[in-house]
């Protein structure tokens, strides 16, 4: 399969530009520069493309880089038989056409010198400076001799870490892969498939995340032709036999131009044909293709406000398809993309998609981070490190997804784990934004849950997460978040917090009560690699958490009421079974007394409990009772409140925030606008009961919280 056959649409993207014969340029490259005071003829096209975006660019450094690249690669040939210098020339031309700045082009000319020739990084640094040296080093592969089978994943790890410091590293890598894919036809089929698979799994998602749509769409088509040749040929046939059903895009474009002209809106309306993969997806989604399904209308205007003016005219003069409207100007996508998307229907029902953006938005939409030039250069007249005047952060090339990737890759020390996790992470091709209770914001992949949000916000501190509140309502940790949700994560006290708060440390930096940790079930709800790696690491370091603890032998005369670790009492009756009365649920330091009931069981009551008076009246002798050493306890509380929406959610959140666990709860039907709640709660320390009751009383609508004082209704 030839490179031309796998590059559909390439000719239309270069309409109006003289075609470039890389073979001829390769032969010219062997001759070197014609003179010292002019650029070599071989990079004339690069210079023209570069000057089109940067009229004042200094081209002498490009000539110097070309001379070094040509001399170092002289005598090397590609598998296609062309001089090797044609490859760095082609990569540089791709970047120049996208608008890359001079430093990036210099590094792209030299990107294979350190890897494939005798040139060293020290030489590159001495000749071209630290920036160019860093970029060249970032795209240089690791040797298989040193890394074996791990060379490819470790090369990508190295490249991604370098991209975290300078995004131009990945720009060069994407252009490099694009030219290699264009000329992949000379490779063996199995090698073509392997390279195409890596491109599909890793590099195309990275191009999407960096917003370089011009490279992403062509890479998609090239991969499509290799991995799905039958579907590719079918799609090519569909495009060749373009459907003529209904009006064409040209007809609707004329109507749109006339509408905007009559509204006195200056705009450029162009037709953007869909690339092969886009046509393939549309055909699978819609079945029979109509003439308007093979492209979109692109409306380019001067200012942001003009975008909305165009939108208003289109929705007024045509029938809008409301479900297709998206505003990526007010809420840009995570890859810097901005545009208005809509779809309108003509009088005959033909629907056409319309993209509305400014010329600058269009430049960024096509070239992504490449269009930013050098994002690390200081703003003219600004202090170093100062924010730009428009309020945007100085480095928009370190988005949330890249920060998350760099974070979790540190924990994935095994190359296989890193490679598998990287592909899985990049396969999540959509991102959502959720807001935090403190006003911050998190970027998460679509499908993320509260577990993922906890680890994204708190790192390993999320091991102590006990719940979440989503949009004001209590939610389970498995709750899937959607774009725009507000999340408040509830954490148990961590060991660090206990040490700082003198919550029972032994003076050695340890605490008597360990913080809670994640359960294995959390792995079923975690979608982000950071969360999965952290949970897996904690479970591996705490294998005892996977085991069911053995029951300890009961001490005579002592009872732990209910679950492990609850408050206990000691009675002055040998071998007696003791239980805490459910009518008053005594807790330390309540004054308590006990009575022997059927079966020799000693029931412990608070002294003010009505049951004590009844027992005494029947002549039963009290039993001496004292509290044991354990702090945990169980208590039943009644909360009286006025009925209102979300009252139960607010009450249970107050209980969880106070560190209590709900054993059981009952809400009676409203009566005269009043509601009675009954909660049986497990407290880590009885001393926290007054604070818990105050927190419950502070919930709006609650007018009384009290302990149980009488026999509960059966």
Structural write-up:
Residues 1-20, 22-37, 381-397, 494-515 and 548-567 have low confidence and may be disordered. A hairpin with a 6-residue loop joins strand 20 and strand 21 (674-683). The protein has 28 helices and 22 strands. 41% of the residues lie in helices and 16% in strands. Strands 1, 2, 3, 4, 5 and 6 form a 6-stranded mixed beta sheet that branches. By secondary structure, it is of the alpha+beta class.
Question: What's the topology here?
Answer:
Blueprint: H1 10-13, H2 22-30, H3 44-53, H4 60-73, H5 86-98, H6 102-109, H7 113-116, H8 121-128, H9 130-139, H10 144-147, H11 151-165, H12 168-182, H13 189-209, H14 213-227, H15 229-240, H16 249-262, E1 268-273, H17 276-286, E2 295-301, H18 304-317, E3 319-320, E4 326-327, E5 340-345, E6 351-358, H19 359-367, H20 400-411, H21 415-426, E7 431-436, E8 441-445, H22 450-458, E9 465-470, E10 473-475, E11 486-491, H23 495-500, H24 522-525, H25 529-541, E12 558-560, E13 568-571, E14 577-580, E15 592-596, E16 601-606, H26 610-617, E17 622-623, E18 625-627, E19 633-642, H27 647-657, E20 661-667, E21 674-683, H28 689-697, E22 702-707
Parallel strand pairs: 2-6, 7-11, 14-16
Antiparallel strand pairs: 1-2, 3-5, 4-5, 5-6, 7-8, 9-10, 9-11, 12-13, 13-18, 15-16, 15-17, 19-21, 19-22, 20-21
Helix pairs in contact: 3-5, 4-6, 5-6, 5-12, 6-9, 6-12, 8-9, 9-11, 9-12, 11-20, 12-13, 12-14, 13-14, 13-21, 14-15, 15-17, 20-25
